[in-house]
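Section 3.1: Structural characterization of target chains.
Under the original work plan, the team committed to producing a structural model for every single-chain target entering the pipeline before any wet-lab resources were allocated. The record below documents one such target. The sequence was received from the expression subgroup and is listed exactly as submitted; it comprises 249 residues.
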Amino acid sequence: MRKIGVIGGMSCESSVLYYKLANKQVREKFGGLVSPKILINSVNFAEVREMQTSGDWDGAGRFLAEEALNLQKGGADIVLLATNTMHKVAHFIEDALDVPFLHIADAVAVKLKQAGVSTTGLLGTRYTMIDDFYKKRLKANHNIETVIPDEKYIDKIDSVIFDELCQGLVEDKSRELYKAALEDLKAKGAGAVILGCTEIGILIKQTDSLLKTVCSTQAHIDVALEYSLSDKSIEDVLGLNAEVVLKTA
């Protein structure tokens, strides 16, 4: 069993899910007291949020790369960043590590391809929806197109994430907002929707959507465990050949 390292704390609500989901799946697979080998490095989200809002993305990248190296030094065989938004600076982490870094968009793509989806909707923070880092990764590595909700939904979706979900609050009115955004994505031709913030799965379940939902948290854990519990390379787990460039451009 290979050891999984997780950079968490962004927010703690989703970091808890990473740990619980991984343990649940390993227990179901092996039974008894078998549990996954996991290292969690939980950072102060307030520090990261300050770098986000001030636009200091390079500083955030260097900060997270150092935290990733701490996991590698602690024996992690693969590193996960338990937040979609901060994959905007994933290249800092990829460049710093000797062990594999499992990009969350690559993990999500595994689920989309298994479902035969070539065009997906994307819900997440404003950064994740508006910036290109996530959409470009899906297109370059997996030939998956991405659509996002109309502008009228963007700030409201973002606000629910930071003001409610990251603080453990789940509001019915926010679920209705997200369901309206899901309808918008369906009208734009999406064959599925990525719950592209690790907290959105707390609010939206498959029963809330006519589209297939792909929870990024669940996908990230599924792929990480497949790597941990096998002797496959990360490229084999992701279904990518050696010629595919895994790093973010």
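The mean pLDDT is 95.
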